[in-house]
Every structure is written in structure tokens, then in C-alpha cells.
TrEMBL record:
Gene Ontology MF terms: nucleotide binding
Name of the molecule in the record: Gfo/Idh/MocA family oxidoreductase
InterPro entries membership: Gfo/Idh/MocA-like_OxRdtase_N, Gfo/Idh/MocA_Oxidoreductase, GFO_IDH_MocA-like_dom, NAD(P)-bd_dom_sf
Domain Gfo/Idh/MocA-like oxidoreductase N-terminal: 1-115
All copies of domain GFO/IDH/MocA-like oxidoreductase, residue ranges: 126-239
Xref: Pfam families: GFO_IDH_MocA, GFO_IDH_MocA_C3
Length: 319
């Protein structure tokens, strides 16, 4: 299928484009604010332009621009009958997510969100282990994602462009992955954030209650050592899931029960390739992408509640 990339930063160049080539997709156009410099990197069959409105003959567009631009660019593409594969988070808040999902539905185009964590083979295995009942009913969950963000003069530190800090950038990964692995939705949240000297959240922590009664202790940080970890405590055992949300696709699973620990292996597949293949399949078969606009809307309702709770210091229900 013919793809366009909107926003040609590091994630587009270093992760998405190589994955697109591996998946057999065709890069037909790039939209960037610096078309002259980017044009020199490609053959003439790749059209390099500076306006989304000028896209033509495109099946799917991959949007990897600052969060504040996602809604506008998605609507422009939907009006042109172009399917949209948008980087997370889908928009600045749940209202934008809902408006984007509705508009794409009315326009008859697919809206998918780039949550590569859903395609990490260890996250898939973790979901299967929980579904099997091997560790029993899960009562307590811990989830953490952190790294030291050294690019503190970039758009992610401008709330007008990003909508927030660690929660919007990596907390959203934890939310989406927990909902996927547990197969459940958050109904209440209590949270606290710390901005330090910056205008966006640097460190954030929350307690989330899921519909089935599980409690999750969730934290994310732009200011602490790089780590991704999940811990699921059941009444028959425990499961640790490690390193499954980093851009370098990998992972580990440790299951603890009956006084012993066991490593579980899974086949490593490039989740960036798998998410592209999933989006193309959704367009070809008129099925739902793994994370469609309405799944992203659910994620953003949790994000909104996280911010509201941290401001009011109250428990917030997620409707």
C-alpha cells in the first residue's frame, strides 16, 4: 500500500521507515517543515512536500508530529479519504480523541494508533498467561516506565504542543498495555504528579482500580533511570514482565509459583513491522486496527482522569 509520513523526526526515520520497508509498504510521500533537506535523502519517486493538504494518491498516512497537530492533520487526511495511522497519544485529551474517532468513522476511513507495545511478543505472551489462569486471579499490579529525558528544550516540554509530560509520552504506553494484558478497563484513579522545574509532569504516580477489582500502582518518569516493568500478583503465583516498551524490541517474562522462578521465552518479532501489517490488514479487510480511535479514546479518558486527580488530589471515576 502507498504510505505517506507526516513529521520526519527520529521515530519516523529510525523506527517507522525501516519497519515500513521490512513490511513491504511503499513510501510515496513525506510531509515535513524542511522539505529541501529531506528531499535530498530520497529518490524522485518519493514526493517531499510541506503541507498535508497537498497529499495525493495515498492509502495510509503515518502522523508523527507534536500532539497538538494530530487532530487537525487527521481530519485533513480523512476529508481526502486517506486512512490514518497516528502516533500515540491520539490527541491532546479525550475530547479530541472522540472527535477524531467520530470524524474518521463518518468519513469511512480507518484510524489506528501506533501502540507498538501491543505487538511485543512478550506482552502478548503475558496476556495469554493471565488468560490461562496460571497465576490465578490478579489482585495487585505494578507498572513502571522511566528514562532520563535529556532533550528538555524540545516540544515535549511545551504543554501547548504536548499536552503534558511523562504521562502523555510514556504513561499512555502503560495504560494501553495494562488494558491489553489484563483485558480490563480502569474505573477509578487517584494520582499525584511532580513537575520539578519544568512546565510539564516529570514524575507521575497513580493508583488505578480496574473493573474486575484489581489495583494497579503505576508510575512514569522523565527523570529516573531507564526501566520498563510490570508485576502481576495472582492468588496462585506472580508474573514479572520486563523491558517490553522500549524502542529496541525485546522482553523478559518470569513466572513465580510454588516457591520457584521460571523464565518464559517468546519469539522476538519487530513490533513496528507488526503494527504496520495490522494497519494495512484493517484497511484491506475493513476490520479494526489493534488500537483504533475508540480504544485510544478510552486511553485518553484515563489520562484526563490522571491529570484531574493530580490537580484535585481526589479519586476520579473514569466513565
Amino acid at each position: 500500500m502507498r504510505w505517506a509520513i507526516v513529521g520526519f523526526g527520529s521515530i519516523s526515520k529510525n523506527k517507522f521507515l525501516p519497519a515500513l520497508n521490512e513490511a513491504g509498504g511503499t513510501l510515496a510521500a513525506i510531509v515535513t517543515g524542511r522539505p529541501e533537506s529531506v528531499r535530498n535523502e530520497f529518490e524522485r519517486d518519493v514526493k517531499v512536500i510541506d503541507k498535508v493538504e497537498d497529499l495525493e494518491n495515498i492509502d495510509i498516512v503515518y502522523i508523527a508530529t507534536p500532539n497538538s497537530l494530530h487532530k487537525e492533520q487527521t481530519i485533513i487526511c480523512a476529508k481526502k479519504n486517506i486512512n490514518v495511522f497516528c502516533e500515540k497519544p491520539v490527541g491532546m485529551n479525550a475530547q479530541e480523541a472522540q472527535e477524531m474517532a467520530k470524524f474518521c468513522d463518518r468519513s469511512g476511513v480507518k484510524l489506528g494508533i501506533a501502540h507498538m507495545g501491543r505487538f511485543n511478543s512478550y506482552n502478548v505472551l503475558a496476556r495469554d498467561i493471565l488468560r490461562s489462569g496460571e497465576i490465578g486471579k490478579v489482585g495487585i499490579v505494578k507498572a513502571s516506565f522511566s528514562f532520563v529525558n535529556v532533550e528538555r528544550n524540545k516540544w515535549r516540554y511545551d504543554p501547548a504542543l504536548s499536552g503534558g509530560g511523562a504521562i502523555m509520552d510514556i504513561g499512555i504506553h502503560l495504560i494501553n498495555s495494562l488494558r491489553f494484558i489484563l483485558g480490563d478497563d480502569v474505573v477509578e484513579i487517584s494520582a499525584i504528579n511532580e513537575n520539578l522545574e519544568y512546565p510539564v509532569d516529570q514524575n507521575a504516580a497513580a493508583i488505578m482500580k480496574f473493573a474486575n477489582g484489581s489495583l494497579a500502582l503505576v508510575d512514569c518518569s522523565f527523570d529516573t533511570y531507564g526501566s520498563v516493568s510490570f508485576e502481576f500478583r495472582g492468588d496462585k503465583g506472580m508474573m514479572y514482565v520486563l523491558d517490553t516498551l522500549f524502542q529496541e524490541y525485546k522482553g523478559r517474562i518470569i513466572v513465580a509459583k510454588n516457591g520457584s522462578f521460571e523464565l518464559r521465552d517468546s519469539i522476538d518479532k519487530n513490533p513496528y513491522v507488526l503494527e504496520i501489517e495490522d494497519m494495512e490488514k484493517a484497511v484491506k479487510t475493513q476490520s479494526k486496527p489493534a488500537t483504533d480511535g475508540w480504544e485510544a479514546f478510552k486511553d485518553m479518558k484515563i489520562v484526563d482522569a490522571w491529570y484531574e486527580s493530580s490537580k484535585t488530589l481526589k479519586m476520579i471515576k473514569v466513565n
